[in-house]
Amino acid sequence: MDAAIDEERARRVRENQEELARARAEWQAALDEARGKREAVSREKPLERPNRPAFEDVGTAIRERMEVRGTFNAMNLLGLLAANSAEERTARAAEATARNTGRIWRAMEDGQPAFE
């Protein structure tokens, strides 16, 4: 019984190795074909690069086309510094909750009834 299982396993391993070898050969043939096509195209017409300005010229071009518009209002800055924002209100509420929770905790530790 073990010999039959070993033979079946060996047969499957051989089949898998043969299939892998065929797939590798097919893959290599596709690589060779692509390489040949690429070399044929490069022999026909060399790769042309578009006429691009040098890196330093790009910065100059950007500066020449850049424009800044707008105004500054100091009152708007004061609005950003105001303490009435939603974030401030949320922070104050969280701090008050922490204080009240601390009081409840201390009352429970002192033996006072938590619920009446």
Report what the structure shows:
By secondary structure, the chain is mainly α. Helices cover 74% and strands 0% of the residues. The longest helix is centred in the N-terminal third of the chain and has 43 residues, at 2-44. The mean pLDDT is 80.
Largest beta-sheet details:
none
Q: How many helix segments?
A: 4
The shape is: flat
Rg from C-alpha positions?
A: 39 Å
Give the H and E element order. HHHH
Q: Give the helix level as a range of percent.
A: over 70%
**Whole-number average pLDDT?**
80
Give the structural class: mainly alpha
Query: What proportion strand?
Result: under 5%
Q: Total strand count, please?
A: 0
Short description:
The chain is 74% helix and 0% strand.
List its salient traits.
116 residues; mainly alpha; 4 helices; 74% helix; 0% strand; flat
Give the topology, please.
Blueprint: H1 2-44, H2 55-65, H3 74-81, H4 86-109
